[in-house]
Write a structure and sequence with these properties.
Jelly Rolls; alpha+beta; 3-stranded mixed β-sheet; single chain
Length: 390
């Protein structure tokens, strides 16, 4: 019975569906037992290893049984998981390709954080992670502030509101996140935008009375504030290099990195119309997507399908979440968030698919180890360069 539960938990872990507590349980035992396996010349004695782990778990259980009896079966599962993952991990490595955990730790790379640059209408560029909280600029009655929890906030004075028609289009601002950066900005109309790494958003410091329009590169999640003029909802338009998205008041995500070769628009709430921009003589018809759907636009087609919105928004919630995603796409995300260069020593590896979940706030080694669990690919960390090895 315990083995069946252990196998179920292992399967759940490899599919990326474990709770944080289950993830900690699996990984703590795996890391403990494989932290420095040494240069095995022959297969280790796994029966002895199992006895050792089981003895340790029994000792810990005796100390904590009164506090957490509900985890009794999980401890037994950890034995099986640590052994299963350890065998799978070690058996797929030769002495020539083994990279010890200690090597990962020595060359490890920390995750990104709240980093961004704000460029004002007058050309002044401000590093937001270096300025103090509070007011950082005033553009003709539009006060720009940095909040304590790392957000950019626009507040419009009453005088600026009265002059909205005349001054609204004059002051363009741009917020840019570097590789290894993310940031949240609250736009003048109340719209909230979360920018992922290596992204930028261009907008006016005060929107016109009849139009709200921003330009995006990279990836962002929008919670658009509902605004009305003369009883009609005021549209909000997001432009990228491939499309225009028109919304009335909704929650959606746009992923438009050039290196990915397409633009993905995912709707969580409300209504979105996707208008492809004609390119190279190809004109595609606009499509409206419903909540839970995603449009994927490339140079020749615009397709709509139902997707797992939790996976799409995992980056915003602090996770990498992959579901049969190819390694090229995964490593593009790693490169942007950890500010590293990624090199494949075999191009065939780019199309291999992986599934799993890991915190974006873990060091890069934790992400790479999860992928390595499959035994089909390995990594080397060389400075700020990650080499993908077959």
């Amino acid at each position: 019975m315990e083995n069946k539960r252990a196998q179920a938990l292992l399967d759940k872990y490899l599919e990326g569906k474990c709770s944080p507590e289950e993830i900690d349980l699996v990984e703590s035992w795996y890391l403990k037992e494989t932290a420095d396996p040494g240069p095995f010349q022959t297969e280790p004695d796994y029966n002895e290893l199992k006895k050792s782990i089981w003895k340790n778990i029994q000792q810990e259980n005796n100390q904590t049984r009164k506090l957490v009896p509900q985890y009794k079966w999980a401890a037994a599962a950890a034995v099986f998981i640590a052994l299963s993952v350890g065998v799978y991990y070690l058996a797929n490595k030769t002495n020539a390709s083994v990279q010890k955990t200690t090597d990962f730790v020595r060359n490890d790379i920390a995750p990104g954080g709240n980093k961004a640059f704000l460029t004002l209408a007058d050309g002044k560029r401000i590093a937001l992670d270096n300025v103090q909280n509070g007011k950082i600029a005033d553009q003709t009655g539009v006060v720009i502030s940095k909040t304590a929890n790392g957000q950019l906030l626009y507040t419009i004075s009453e005088n600026a509101k009265s002059n909205q028609k005349n001054s609204a289009m004059a002051n363009f601002n741009t917020i840019e996140t570097p590789k290894g950066g993310q940031y949240q900005v609250n736009l003048p109309d109340g719209t909230k935008v979360w920018l992922n790494a290596s992204s930028s958003l261009r907008y006016v410091a005060q929107f016109a009375a009849t139009k709200r329009e921003v330009t995006l590169t990279g990836e962002a999640y929008f919670e658009v504030a509902k605004r009305t003029v003369n009883g009609k909802r005021l549209p909000f338009v997001v432009k990228t290099n491939m499309q225009e998205v028109e919304v009335l008041g909704t929650h959606f995500n746009i992923n438009s990195y050039q290196e990915d070769g397409n633009t993905k628009t995912t709707l969580l709430e409300g209504s979105v119309a996707v208008h492809p921009i004609p390119a190279k003589g190809i004109s595609l018809a606009a499509k409206t997507i419903k909540p839970g759907e995603q449009s994927v636009l490339n140079a020749s087609a615009l397709q709509v399908s139902t997707v797992d919105t939790e996976q799409v928004l995992a980056w915003k919630e602090g996770f990498f979440m992959f579901d049969n995603e190819n390694l090229q796409s995964i490593m593009n995300q790693v490169a942007r968030w950890y500010d590293v260069e990624v090199v494949f020593n075999d191009s065939s590896l780019k199309s291999k698919e992986f599934s799993g979940t890991v915190s974006r706030f873990a060091n890069v080694s934790q992400v790479l180890k999860k992928i390595e669990f499959t035994g089909s690919v390995h990594f080397k960390i060389e400075g700020r360069r990650i080499v993908v090895i077959k």
